Every structure is written in structure tokens, then in C-alpha cells.
Amino acid sequence: MNQLLYFFLYAQIALCFFCLYRIIRGPTIADRMVGIDIFGILVVGICAIISVITNRTFILDIGIAWIILSFIGTLTLAKYLGGKKLNE
Amino acid sequence: MSKIIFIILLSIGILFNLFGCIGLLRLPDVYNRLQSATKCVTLGCCSILLSLIVYYGFNEIGVKALIAIPLLFFTSTVAAHALIRGSYFFGIKLGDKSVKDDYKEVAEAAKNKDSKK
């Protein structure tokens, strides 16, 4: 049971490296931001699996905070790409 | 019994994440990459959080996962929409194999409206 959970954890961490490849090698700036967005969603899954393994609840709080922060960051960068000022 | 459903939901989530990330690597342009990755990865992570609810019931962990699911659904879809709209206005071209661009007229109308102000 525990070994299976560790296998899922390592699989999820390996998927994060796919996103890192896209962040590093992306041809345009939008590719890099897509990579950052997907990375932020994958981290929530990692937090969920770690909270099952260690049986502690505060790690899910980190996941919830990470969702909100990545949402705000992506919206800000999308406004920058659209060519608008931040107060419009 | 709940342990078996927990394992099944967890492996479904990891599989969806894997398909989304393969799409992120292999598809030709930004729009295809985003529409593949954001849908699959959102559904996969929601499946992982749902498995926590099944395994723990209405525990502390279960309720927190129940809060996180709608938050993840709404924020990730809205962020993806804003991101792809911004990258279209930034002027990133579609891939070589794409045949039709339906958004062009709407984007030009919006640009004219902005320049008139």
C-alpha cells in the first residue's frame, strides 16, 4: 500500500519535469506561461499524495494556497500579454 | 472496499495527468498544447482529491479536499481562457497544419473598439 503511494508520488514528480522541459525550451513566451500554469495544477496533486503518506492535514492547505497564487499569477501575466495595463 | 476505490481513482488521476503532459510535449502550437494540458490535468488532479474524500470520509483531510475541488475547477479554467486570449492578442501565429481561424473577426473588432477609445 505504502510502496504504491510512493510510486504514484514519484510518477507525479516525473510529470513535473515534462512541464519544466516546456518552460525551458518553449519557442514563444506563451509556451512558457502554459508550462507554469500546468505546473501549478500538478503541485496540488503532489500535496494531496504527500498528505496521505504522512497523514498530516496542513499540507493540503499549502495546495489550496498554491491554487490561488497560481491563478493570480497567470491572470497578471495574461494581462501583460494582451497589452493592457494592470489597472484597466 | 474503500481502499480499492481509492487506488482506482488515484491511478485514473495519474493516467489523466500523464496524457495531458504528453500532449503538452508533443502538440505543435500554443493553442493545442493548452487545450490538451489544462483539461486533462485539471480532471486528473480533481480525481486525486476525490480519492482522498473516498478514503477518509468527512475527516479533516476529506473536507479540505472537498473545498479544493471546486476551487481548482473554476480557477484553472478561467486562467486558461485569459491566457489563451492574451496570447492571441500578443500575435502568436497558429501552427502550420491548422486550417481555419474563427476568432480573427472577433479579435479585430475588439482591437478597433480599443483604438477608438
Summary of the model, kept short:
The complex is a heterodimer of chains A (88) and B (117). With 88 residues, chain A is mainly alpha-helical.
Query: What is the number of domains of chain A?
Result: 1
Number of domains of chain B: 1
How far the N terminus sits from the C terminus of chain B, by CA atoms, comes to 63 Å
Radius of gyration of chain B: 19 Å
Which stretches of chain A are poorly predicted, pLDDT < 50 over at least 5 residues? none
Derived from helix and strand composition plus strand pairing, the structural class of chain B reads mainly alpha
**What is Rg of chain A?**
16 Å
Helicity of chain B, as a percent range: over 70%
Shape of chain B: elongated
Any low-confidence stretches of chain B, pLDDT <50, length ≥5?
Answer: none
Backbone structural class of chain A? mainly alpha
**How much is the average pLDDT of chain A?**
88
> Sheet with the most strands of chain B?
none
Count of helices of chain B? 4
Termini separation of chain A comes to 52 Å
In terms of DSSP E residues, the strand content of chain B is under 5%
Can you count the helices of chain A? 3
Describe the structure.
The complex is a heterodimer of chains A (88) and B (117). Chain A is mainly alpha-helical. The longest helix of chain A has 26 residues. Chain A has one domain. The N and C termini of chain A lie far apart (52 Å). In chain A, helix 1 packs antiparallel against helix 2 and helix 2 packs antiparallel against helix 3. With 117 residues, chain B is an all-alpha fold. In chain B, 82% of the residues lie in helices and 0% in strands. The longest helix of chain B is centred in the middle third of the chain and has 31 residues. Chain B is elongated and about 60 Å long. The chains are: A mainly alpha (88), B mainly alpha (117). Chains A and B meet through helix 1, helix 2 and helix 3 of A and helix 1, helix 2 and helix 3 of B.
